[in-house]
Design brief:
Length: about 110
């Protein structure tokens, strides 16, 4: 079982996905000869529709960023592991190693 992703990007992704999921599947049409209640429902559905349409490109951008961050996390973990492995001749200046550790910490990784 994979570990749960608690990164800020996953929280943003979940919030955007929820906005999209709660929106109507099609753009609401204005009720002809509708009651006030029908018009209010239309206005509410239209607002949710518009929010979902605005959220779609944001969700795509967050997904791209999350994928890039996952790959960067994997690469940084490999660098850290190679530098800690006594059987390799990999070496980094300590300042670079500290930057790798700081970047991984920002991504939610513990050493």
């Amino acid at each position: 079982m994979a570990a749960a992703d608690h990164s800020p990007l996953s929280a943003i992704r979940d919030a955007l996905a929820e906005i999209i999921a709660e929106a109507p599947e099609a753009e609401p049409t204005y009720p002809k000869d509708g009651s006030r209640k029908q018009v209010e429902a239309w206005a509410y559905d239209t607002a949710r529709w518009n929010s979902a349409q605005a959220a779609l490109p944001a969700l795509a951008a967050v997904n791209i960023a999350a994928t890039a961050m996952d790959r960067a996390r994997g690469a940084l973990k490999a660098v850290r592991a190679a530098c800690r492995d006594p059987d390799t001749d990999t070496a980094l200046p300590s300042a670079v190693g500290e930057e790798v550790e700081a970047a991984l910490a920002l991504m939610g990784e513990r050493s």
